[in-house]
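It would be a great kindness if you could assist me with a short task in structural biology. The matter concerns a single protein, recorded as an amino acid sequence and a row of backbone structure tokens. Could you please explain, in whatever detail you think fit, how the structure tokens follow from the sequence? Thank you for your consideration; the sequence and its tokens are set out here:
___
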Amino acid sequence: MTSHTLFALLLSLAAVLTLVSVVSAAGAVSTSDFQKITREERNYRQKKVIDISHKYVPDLPAFGSKNGLGNFIRLQTSIKLGDLSNDSVFNLSTHSGTHVDAPGHFNETLFELGYDVVSLDLRTLNGPVLVVDTPRDKNITAEVMRSLNIPRGVKRVLFRTLNTDRRLMYKKEFDSSYTAFTSDGAEYLVQNTDIKLVGVDYLSVAINPKDQLVKVHQLLFAPKDIIPVEGLKLDDVVPGVYTIHCLPLRLNHGDGSPARCILFQ
């Protein structure tokens, strides 16, 4: 074997060993990744987490009902009864408790075009959010919206109203006197702000009379990129700036969905 041939063989062997080394290390966690995740974990541990979702219980109010949600969940199989596992089934409206609305909720054309829960922009549902207190003697009218002076550029706002003070989400019987948006308030929001996530502390973003209920929703849904989040738990939330994470279920053809929403402070 010539020295040239031997050199070529050694070079090929080195290349193979290098390839094996790269492949074996491909799944390993690097030191820099470990340092980064440790740093991120430390940062998150320092943040306060506020759960702004209501617990689903039989006495949670349901829109238009005197009896709340009722017994909406039951065991289908039970370990106590000799089954291998506990496996429950539940029956809920897509607009129960803390939930989001999709544009198809009050607009048949948008519903047919596929503007359902799956189509909602997760970037809208997650990010910096402003929590504001509204006047306790008014619904959210255009006048109230002007008085709040929410700057252009603010994308997400949670409106803490008299509903929270009255603890309406803790009362089983639906209360039609809840505070919410009027049609002129909704029109002002659409035309004069950049708000895309509208959070409220009772079961509807719109006041109760049927004409207003429909009109407010249609005004908000017309741009197709505004997401109402309803039934929020804002008891322990003071006005200010937070980070919101709000995730509905991916319900294909869903006009709404229960959601788990939290704030980071």
Strands lie at 49-51, 73-77, 87-90, 99-101, 126-133, 156-160, 197-200, 227-230, 240-248, 256-264.
